[in-house]
From TrEMBL:
<keyword id="KW-0378">Hydrolase</keyword>
<feature type="binding site">
    <location>
        <position position="10"/>
    </location>
    <ligand>
        <name>Mg(2+)</name>
    </ligand>
</feature>
<feature type="binding site">
    <location>
        <position position="179"/>
    </location>
    <ligand>
        <name>Mg(2+)</name>
    </ligand>
</feature>
<feature type="binding site">
    <location>
        <position position="99"/>
    </location>
    <ligand>
        <name>substrate</name>
    </ligand>
</feature>
<dbReference type="GO" id="GO:0046872">
    <property type="term" value="F:metal ion binding"/>
</dbReference>
<comment type="similarity">
    <text>Belongs to the HAD-like hydrolase superfamily. PHOSPHO family.</text>
</comment>
<dbReference type="InterPro" id="IPR016965">
    <property type="entry name" value="Pase_PHOSPHO-typ"/>
</dbReference>
<feature type="active site" description="Proton donor">
    <location>
        <position position="10"/>
    </location>
</feature>
<dbReference type="Pfam" id="PF06888">
    <property type="entry name" value="Put_Phosphatase"/>
</dbReference>
<keyword id="KW-0479">Metal-binding</keyword>
<protein>
    <submittedName>
        <fullName>PHOP2 phosphatase</fullName>
    </submittedName>
</protein>
<feature type="binding site">
    <location>
        <position position="19"/>
    </location>
    <ligand>
        <name>substrate</name>
    </ligand>
</feature>
<dbReference type="InterPro" id="IPR036412">
    <property type="entry name" value="HAD-like_sf"/>
</dbReference>
<dbReference type="InterPro" id="IPR006384">
    <property type="entry name" value="HAD_hydro_PyrdxlP_Pase-like"/>
</dbReference>
<keyword id="KW-0460">Magnesium</keyword>
<feature type="active site" description="Nucleophile">
    <location>
        <position position="8"/>
    </location>
</feature>
<dbReference type="GO" id="GO:0016791">
    <property type="term" value="F:phosphatase activity"/>
</dbReference>
Length: 241
């Protein structure tokens, strides 16, 4: 009996968007209007690339970025939840699928001592160039019309499950915990024994309830959460069954 926990990162594990949190490093804690207005829907990664160039041009170094990123707050109850999962790793495989980047997630999880809770992190690859600028790339290419250009979370989840099956690992249940519009695609891939846990008041919850109103509800069960202690309560029931 093994369960797979799939987490989004921004507004799910941490209570903010890590990509907008980094703006605290910018001069006067803000970006120029021209840069802010250069974002095109579906092309977030390219936009963040320009933000990182701007920070680099303004002399923002790796150390300062790291200091800033590790002050990002965790969502209510999340520290307890991750501690609980860490104590029960024999029952839970745990992955992150996120539109953030490897550098930010790594810094934040390591600073809080949670990097060992997660078996794998699927996110946009990032690294510092020889000039000290942070660079970020698209996670992969895909053909899903519903998802942003750089990341289809359904594709990531499906490929992960296929790889696990090849290793002889299958899951009693998948629990998907997220908040955003780009979490809907993987949620629609879940089966009736699985469970989607959208964060209350965020886009994913609204999209799932819209589907139910349109009489095309998702196949899996849905349990809304506002504090991660509610997720922990559900997992405790799950492992007792």
């Amino acid at each position: 009996m093994k369960f797979l926990l799939v987490f989004d990162f921004d507004h799910t594990i941490v209570d903010e968007n890590s990509d907008t949190w980094i703006v605290k490093c910018a001069p006067e804690n803000k970006l120029p209007n021209g840069l802010r207005n250069s974002y095109r829907p579906g092309h977030w990664t390219e936009y963040m690339g320009r933000v990182f160039v701007y920070l680099g041009d303004n002399g923002v170094k790796e150390e300062e970025m790291k200091r800033t990123m590790t002050t990002i707050p965790f969502t209510a109850g999340m520290v307890d939840l991750l501690g609980f999962i860490g104590e029960n790793k024999e029952l839970f495989d745990c992955i992150i699928v996120s539109d953030s980047n490897t550098v930010f997630i790594d810094w934040i999880l390591k600073a809080a001592g949670f990097h060992k809770v997660f078996d794998e992190v699927f996110t946009n690859p990032a690294a510092f160039s020889s000039a000290g600028y942070l660079t970020v790339q698209n996670f992969h290419a895909h053909h899903c019309a519903k998802c942003p250009k750089n990341l289809c979370k359904r594709k990531v989840l499906k490929e992960f499950l296929d790889k696990q099956l090849e290793r002889g690992v299958s899951y009693t249940q998948i629990v998907y915990i997220g908040d955003g519009g780009n979490d809907l695609c993987p949620v629609m891939f879940l089966k009736k024994d699985d469970i989607a846990m959208p964060r209350q008041g965020y886009t994913l919850e609204k999209k799932i309830s819209q589907l139910a109103q349109d009489l095309s509800p998702v196949e899996c069960s849905v349990l809304v959460w506002s504090s991660a202690t509610e997720i922990m309560s559900y997992l405790k029931v799950l492992i007792k069954e």
